[in-house]
Amino acid sequence: MQEANKTVDCQGLSCPMPIVKTKRAITEIHPGQVLEVLATDPGSVADVQSWTRRTGHEYLGTVEDGPTFKHYIRRAALEQTEPDKKHPLTASHETLLAAMEQDVQLLDVREPLEYAAGHIPSAVSVPLGQIKNWITEHQHLAQQKIFVVCHSGNRSDTACKILHEHGFHRVFNVVEGMRKWTGPIQVPNGTHSGPASHSKES
């Protein structure tokens, strides 16, 4: 992997903080230079890949070093970057809770370990990196209303954009994510009400 010109330490932080710090750090290097992002959140792999894809910066790869993920990003020239636009259709927790009383599709695009630690009972686990496979297998659901959730609304925003590009036009990003969810949660030993446990944030 190419030597980095700058390193940003996001170890111990969970989504969305690695991307928040990455956005700030990328502005502190010159176009063509490389940023190294150190993170321990497994979800940071999909987060970094989707963020670079949306913004035009070049994702060079990730190296695993024990519990640490070392992500490498080459900064693009200003004329090559794009604004990080959000998916326009969003839903609050209240809207999702009301919709759950009906038969709606709810996709949880966090990593499997995050999902296993605690998820909304009706949610189907579809990690962001597998969303295109899910689309291929579920084209018959393209006209249905679909809600998408992740930890903080970032990965779910990316998933909604991908779904929309493939003909799913009734997809809603649950922007508050699981970090603020106070509804029912399925955990390994049963179901309870209350927020899922989260890793450290700042």
UniProtKB/TrEMBL annotation:
<dbReference type="Pfam" id="PF00581">
    <property type="entry name" value="Rhodanese"/>
</dbReference>
<dbReference type="Pfam" id="PF01206">
    <property type="entry name" value="TusA"/>
</dbReference>
<dbReference type="InterPro" id="IPR036873">
    <property type="entry name" value="Rhodanese-like_dom_sf"/>
</dbReference>
<comment type="similarity">
    <text>Belongs to the sulfur carrier protein TusA family.</text>
</comment>
<protein>
    <recommendedName>
        <fullName>Rhodanese domain-containing protein</fullName>
    </recommendedName>
</protein>
<feature type="domain" description="Rhodanese">
    <location>
        <begin position="100"/>
        <end position="187"/>
    </location>
</feature>
<feature type="region of interest" description="Disordered">
    <location>
        <begin position="183"/>
        <end position="202"/>
    </location>
</feature>
<dbReference type="InterPro" id="IPR001455">
    <property type="entry name" value="TusA-like"/>
</dbReference>
<dbReference type="InterPro" id="IPR036868">
    <property type="entry name" value="TusA-like_sf"/>
</dbReference>
<dbReference type="InterPro" id="IPR001763">
    <property type="entry name" value="Rhodanese-like_dom"/>
</dbReference>
